[in-house]
Each structure stands twice: as structure tokens, then as C-alpha cells.
Design goal:
- The chain is about 30% helix and about 20% strand.
- It has about 220 residues and is an alpha/beta fold.
């Protein structure tokens, strides 16, 4: 748990596809939000590799919008001053975002809080552990519709992660109530499912091995 001396930042990246497997991605936008839910940095990112799909239902962006954007390396030069060795990073499964941003523990952050781990819950119906999307968490617990517009904007996702953190950070009872509510509430159809886990030939089933068409390792096992 963060202390009063720690800086707490929520991060989110969105990616375009640079190939047709669920591994072939490159960042196209980034947002960083502080503990006051203020956007302290947001930028589009110009991919270095050729883009095979903008994944518009997920990014809300067209490739043309990225042509004049800074590269990832240029973005990194600007954001590193926002982080230090005491920073707590908040996000929905932020592992990949941290890797893309080349953030190092002990240099850019001290700890990571994964919101998806907060709300995972045992599902007696299927006798397994259910993980929920940020969109389901935000709609059910914050009454914020992250799918109201085309694509998941990085700014909206980062703010939603921070709002969930602030609402539940010091209340374990509230977290347990939230888990039960998330289990009881039927999720909306996700954009990936609506596309049958493939968009413009790109596999979208990184977390759903039974729907994968690219035969790459599942992220669900990592």
C-alpha cells in the first residue's frame, strides 16, 4: 500500500497490430494519471514498424493520426522525469505497459498494483477464478462506460484505474462486496468477442487459447 510519501501514478497504453498474431503489437497511445485523477501526460505514438491494422474498435485511432506523432523513444525521454524510485504504478494488468515503457523497478517505481488482481474472484459456477475486464469493473463499480466511444482511449482507461484504486485502496470489505457484484453482473460483450477474436486478419485471442488462430502461446499462462 502506498504511503503519504509515495507518488502514485496510473498508466495505460493502447497498441496497433504490426503482424497477424496476438503478439504482434506496437504502442500507439499512452496516458499517465496522478492521484488527483489529473492527466499529467498523454501522447499518441508513431510505430516504427509497418502497421497491418489500427485495431480501431480497440484503439479508436486511425493510422493516419499517428503519422506526425513522436516515436516511442521520444515519448520515453519525456515521461521518465515523472517517475522515481518511490513511485507506485497502478494499472489493469500493467505488466506489458511497464515493459513497453522500459520502466525499471528501483529506478522508476517501487511497487505495482494490478487492479485486475484486486477484483479477481472465485466463481463457484465454473469452479475457477474469474478475472474481469477494466470495462466491466468501471461500468459495474464506477458507472463509467469505457466502451461508450469507439476504442479504449488510454486517458479514460488510466483514469478509471486510478478511480478504482482510490475508491477501494483502504477498504477490504468493500473489495469483497465489489467482487461479488462483479460476479453477479453479466458483462457486456467485449469488442474482441464481438469481432469473434479476429479483426482485419489479426488474432485477438491472446487470453482465450480456445479461440486463438495464430498458434502463439497464450498470455493467460504467463
Amino acid at each position: 500500500m502506498a504511503t503519504s510519501n509515495d507518488r502514485v501514478l496510473a498508466i495505460d497504453l493502447e497498441c496497433v497490430a504490426t503482424g497477424y498474431t496476438h503478439e504482434d503489437r506496437s504502442p500507439c497511445s499512452v496516458a499517465i494519471v496522478n492521484e488527483q485523477c489529473e492527466i499529467i501526460y498523454a501522447s499518441l505514438i508513431k510505430p516504427v514498424e509497418e502497421v497491418v491494422s489500427d485495431l480501431y474498435p480497440f484503439t479508436g485511432l486511425r493510422v493516419k493520426e499517428l503519422e506526425q506523432a513522436p516515436t516511442l523513444e521520444e515519448v520515453l525521454e519525456k515521461i521518465y522525469s515523472l517517475f522515481d524510485s518511490t513511485t507506485i504504478i497502478i494499472g489493469q494488468g500493467p505488466k506489458n505497459d511497464i515493459q513497453w515503457l522500459k520502466l525499471q523497478k528501483g529506478v522508476h517505481y517501487s511497487d505495482v498494483i494490478d487492479i485486475s488482481q484486486w477484483f479477481k474472484a472465485y466463481n463457484p459456477r465454473f469452479d475457477n477464478t474469474s478475472f474481469f475486464s477494466l470495462a466491466h469493473e468501471a461500468l459495474t463499480l464506477l458507472h463509467i462506460d469505457l466502451n461508450a466511444e469507439n476504442g479504449h482511449l488510454a486517458t479514460q482507461d488510466a483514469k478509471a484505474s486510478m478511480q478504482l484504486y482510490l475508491k477501494y485502496k483502504e477498504d477490504e470489505k468493500a473489495k469483497e462486496v465489489a467482487r461479488k457484484l462483479l460476479l453477479r453482473t453479466r458483462p457486456r460483450i467485449t469488442p474482441s468477442k464481438a469481432c469473434n477474436y479476429k479483426y482485419e486478419g489479426v488474432c485477438l485471442a491472446g487470453y482465450f487459447p480456445q479461440m486463438c488462430t495464430c498458434n502463439r502461446p497464450s498470455f493467460a499462462n504467463s
